[in-house]
Amino acid sequence: MQNPSLDRSEIALLEVLAELGADRKPVERGALQVAARGQGIEVARPVNRLKGLGFIEEIDFQPGFFRRLIGARATLLVGLTASGLALVRPAAAEAALAAAEEFVPEPEPTPEPAPEPVPEPEAAPEIVEEPAAPVAPAPAKPKKPRRAAAEKPMPLDAYTDTLGGLPEAAPAVFAVDPGQIEAIRELLGSLGMELTWAGEELLTSRLGAGDRPGEAASQVVLFAFAHAIRHDQTAEASALALGLKDYAVGVMQEIERLRDGGEIAEARFEADMRALWDLVGEPEGRAARAEALLLDPIGGAAPPALLPEELREAEEG
Questions:
Q1: Which of 54, 152, 176, 306 is most exposed, with minimal Cβ within 10 Å?
Q2: pLDDT < 50 regions, the chain
Q3: Are 173 and 208 in contact (CB under 8 A)?
């Protein structure tokens, strides 16, 4: 590999970057510095010049919400560009170019011409018959008016059936598809939770108010953890000691997938997950935060979902 515009340190740095990143995979700037300095290669100056020549590129990688919540920071990645790969690995660059040239898009099928419209035959004019002269009906004999039957008075101590039956049930306030509740029940089951009757009421309230199914499920999870924290204050065995915090981390990762799939709005996801992390994170003020959350008339009435059996032992204790 000869290039009069590059010196030895720059060429050596490209070789190190190709070995670390398997040709095109970007690597962390810190890993590149450790590997290059271990071979006595300068890093700062060659990186800036190679970046200006278009042989390498720097990528600012931002971690996801969950990783940022537990302290992850942005990472600077360094990778080879197509021209940089062609400089240090000509064979790999030619193979990638050949694979791109082999792909030939299939031609779109030509639409068939629409058939010519067939003219419809003209309808024959309708013949309207004149109605015959009406015949006057014979006068009917006047009927004698009947006396209205007197209503039978009902006794005050009569049974409900006698007085007209039970009153009709009031119509439901929210019309929620039962299939949505069953789908959320299966989702919670995959997380190890069991939906309760209180959870069905909470889902009906949230879905009827216009929440997405994923947002309603997130509310069930949040209030289930709040009830678990409340039980921790009086139970002999603590759910937090039995692994409630680790379990919450796994649940938050699954809910983040719902957010990525468009089932939960970004604002609702941020609010619910931050409230959940406050419940299982720092111990100071944890009980007060749980009680403030359980002031909700529906979510705070009863646990909307039961935690996994191994964590439920804390509440039963």
A1: 152
A2: 1-2, 100, 103-104, 161, 166, 169-173, 314-317
A3: yes
The per-residue pLDDT for range 228-265, each reduced to its tens digit, is: 888 877 665 565 656 888 899 999 999 999 999 899 99
Interior/surface letters 291-302, b for 16+ CB within 10 angstroms, e for the rest: eebbeeebbbee
Q: Please, where in the chain does CATH 1.10.10.10 lie?
A: 8-100
Strands 194-195 and 27-28, by their bridges, are: unpaired
pLDDT tens per residue across span 263-310: 999 999 999 999 999 998 877 888 899 999 999 999 999 999 998 887
What pLDDT does residue 107 have?
52
pLDDT score for 304: 95
* CATH number, span 8-100: 1.10.10.10
Backbone angles phi, psi at 56, to 5 degrees: -135, 165
